[in-house]
Amino acid sequence: MTAYLGSNRGCVEKEESPPSKRLAAMYFVQNLVWGAQVVLLTGHMHALGFSGEEISYVAATGSLGAILSPLLGGWLADRFLPGQVFAGLCYILCAPLLWLAWQQTEFVGLWLVLFGFALVHMPTAAVTNAIAFRHLGNSERFGRVRVWGSIGWVSISWALSLYLRLWERWDPAARHLGDGLLIAAGLSLLMGVYCFFLPATPPTRRPRSPLAFLEAFVLLRQRDVAVLMATTFCVAALSPFSQNFSFIFFTDALRGPGLAPSTASWVLSLGQLLEIPIMPFMGAWMARWGIKRVILLGVVAQGVRAGILSWGDPLWLLVIAQGLNSLYIVCFVVASMVAIERLSPPDMRAQAQGLLVLVLRGVGPLCGHVLAGRVYDHFILAAGAHAWTWIFLIPALSSLVFALLFSALFRGTKG
């Protein structure tokens, strides 16, 4: 096992090639933390009586964190701190913030605490991707390792569903949707400690300017990078419609399926379940079809899923449609990570991943949160119901338009 808890000097290293198991475990525990924090959060806020805009503004703290922190985090990991040390420190700091979030019942308090959490947590996405790419070396192996992130997400979703089901039997009147935050706090501490035992990932070059992270924007001079980033912005701006309101839709007894929270959590986990069999084939798909067609498939999958939610029934079709989210994640989100890695020079890859996070989880969703929250509140009906057809029709049609534009403008390469 490689231990690297400081600078290059004095570290003890033993060869391990490839370190796939430790990287797979990294993605597994990382998604346990993320899933525990996210899966029940919008339902928790809805139960607290938050409006659509308030729900979206709290969810937007992650986007604000993605805007303010990952490029700087990638810069530090590229030049000063070993990647695994930086990630470990971030996750340890996240634990008390998640515990504080669990105690909040008002909009302002929850927003402030989760904003602090986002500032510390969001840089880890770019840094852990940079660690994986540094030690794996090719996209086929990355897909086989990254699938454990999907397994982690599904695992925590099912665990939370079982947790809620038990409470629904023992004390149906009690509300425990917020307990995901407390569980995430414990898992974050575990992840922080584990990061110190990841493969040594020292900085790639000596530090330059304190503003060196801005170098990542130079990559936008490349046409394919610019088109990919523009498409990522547009598609990511649509994601809050489903991320913020799918759980509320499935538990809506007036105009939705009216599922119990435990069942709704299980249904939404299907959006990650199919990642497990799909992810290992991502590299082969890109080699056969080209990265352009793979990314295009992901965008179309998002639009079709939203279209089915807009249609609203039958229940079996709504459940099956959640599987399309797996295609979106694998073929768009993860394939975009691979694409930006290929389009970037070696000494700027952590910064390039940070730039992708900035667009994918920052600027794009931030605009989408504002739009989705206002649309949700605009289409409110009598007795608190919502016109879900119109709420989900907007991302459905928009996704198909963005797919056509990407197909026309992105050149791409096969393999």
Descriptive account of the structure:
The chain is mostly helical. It has one domain (20-201, 216-409): Growth Hormone, Chain: A (Up-down Bundle). It is built from 19 helices and no strands. The model is unreliable at 1-17 and 207-212 (pLDDT under 50).
List the helices and strands and how they pair.
Blueprint: H1 20-38, H2 41-47, H3 52-68, H4 70-79, H5 83-102, H6 107-121, H7 123-136, H8 139-170, H9 179-195, H10 223-236, H11 239-251, H12 261-273, H13 275-278, H14 282-289, H15 291-311, H16 315-321, H17 324-342, H18 349-378, H19 388-409
The first-to-last residue Cα distance is 33 Å
Write down the Rg. 20 Å
Return the CATH class: Mainly Alpha
Characterize the quaternary organization of these chains.
single chain
Model regions low in confidence, pLDDT < 50 over at least 5 residues: 1-17, 207-212
The CATH superfamily is identified as MFS general substrate transporter like domains
Query: How many extended strands?
Result: 0
Our estimate of the beta-strand percent is under 5%
Largest sheet: none
Q: At the third CATH level, what is the topology name?
A: Growth Hormone, Chain: A
Count of discrete alpha- or pi-helical segments spanning 4 or more residues: 19
Overall average residue pLDDT: 86
What is the share of helical residues? over 70%
Order of SSEs: HHHHHHHHHHHHHHHHHHH
CATH architecture: Up-down Bundle
Count of discrete domains: 1
Helix/strand structural class: mainly alpha
Shape: globular
